[in-house]
# Entry
Amino acid sequence: MTAGSFKITIHMVASLDGFIAKKDNSVSWFETTDHYEKGITVSGPDIQEFLKTIDCYVMGSRTYEHALELSKSYGWAYGDIPTMVLTHRTLPIERSNIEFYSGDPEKLVNELLKQKYRNVWLVGGADLAKDFIRLKLADEIRLSILPIILGNGLPFFDHIGLEQALHLKDVTAYKSGMVELWYEIKNS
# Structure
């Protein structure tokens, strides 16, 4: 990313058959027992340095509620990074770095996010990701595929309603059997 540039990355974790959660919204399947010898390990200072490059997280209200529930067992996954939750509902503010936004996603991006941040990650949910793609607000998709077929659940791309060209930037295989596909969205 060049100095002064702004980028929104959609990050999603999915099963091989494209589901991001089971029907009961559980994600226990994220903890894989698979092992891929040629893969790399995700941990340590490298991941911490990478996470420092993210200026802001954006998520929908159901992702926020799920993250709050998971934080009771695992801690808040997004640290002290500013987090914008898109919702029309009144939800609890559990941390000082949480803001709520209820309005037009284009206005959010152009009038709020671009003014404050450079590297924004949209981390859920599926409907919000689809809206950002349809509105041409997202620049990249980083899709992490876990070695499991769920058979049903909440799909990542369900009825997106448009064809979207992508450019593969990178592929990374991890020791856990997870594969990350990193695509640039061609918004020309």
